[in-house]
Design goal:
Blueprint lengths: L10 H17 L2 H15 L4 H7 L4 H15 L6 H12 L5 H9 L2 H10 L5 H15 L3 H9 L2 H11 L3 H15 L6 H11 L5 H18 L7 H6 L6 H14 L3 H15 L3 H5 L10 H4 L3 H5 L1
Helix pairs in contact: 2-5, 4-5, 5-8, 7-8, 7-10, 8-11, 10-11, 10-12, 11-12, 11-13, 12-13, 13-15
Amino acid sequence: MPLLGEKGNSGKPATLALKRLLSDWDQGSRSTRERILRDFIKLNEQRTAPELENELANCASLFLARLTAWLRLTYMLGTCLQLQLKAVSIFIGSCSGYKFLNEFIEVGGIMTALEILGLRQTREEDKMEALKLLLKVANGGRKYKELICESFGVKAVAECLARVQSDNTRDKARVLLHELANGNPKYQPQVYKALIALLPANSPSAKQMAAKTLRVVQPMVGKASPNIVDPALMMLRSYHLGVQYEACELLQHLVEYEDVSQSILVGVVSLLRPSIDDIGSQPQPAILADDSVGSIPGRALLL
């Protein structure tokens, strides 16, 4: 059934169509709700808040309430999670959609989205949609960024960046961390510390993205933290060229800060001087371990 898709729906016909839609949703099975979500996303992806209200007979909040209620009940099971998040994003990301955004926040939508990021059983595609949803919340302004941070959002997003396998999902988490720091002075230090904590991450991609974002966030924070020096220097020892490159770029940026410039120079010099452990850990060439080589006269070796 199309969702009020016929042109010219207004007044009583539109109200009847909305009642039919809500009735189908309330009484429908999972497959019915999945079909309704797909139709809704297809028809309304680019619409503004006034257009959504007009499409839903000025009762868009009734449908949004049903979406958020089902999301809160089923997100741990993963039931149509990607479709649900996309549908909710249409509401809160719509132009002039602050009313929908506030309704989403009032029912605990931010906490639900953050919990999705932390669930190990959640698919990466679903985590990507949750990050997109949170990014739309953050784009609402400083007030909404602070709400995400107050809900331990910085920690949840940073852990997501460190754990996920897809570079696309990691990059979306990186963009969200950057957005939470931008124009949000109250929580900039928290984002800054989270990014520093990501530098020793096991994933080379996570290291790169953290270092890349730190170059942008550092000027916002101002004073450089001494805790950034050692993990940044250790990135130079990575076997991944991308990690080495980002470490070099970050250190070149940090050396301009008096708080850490001396520590960086000392650390770089110490890395250039190999330690006894480094030398001892190098594998011995096989030719030196071959006893037969020692019995060959030096003249024969030269020949």
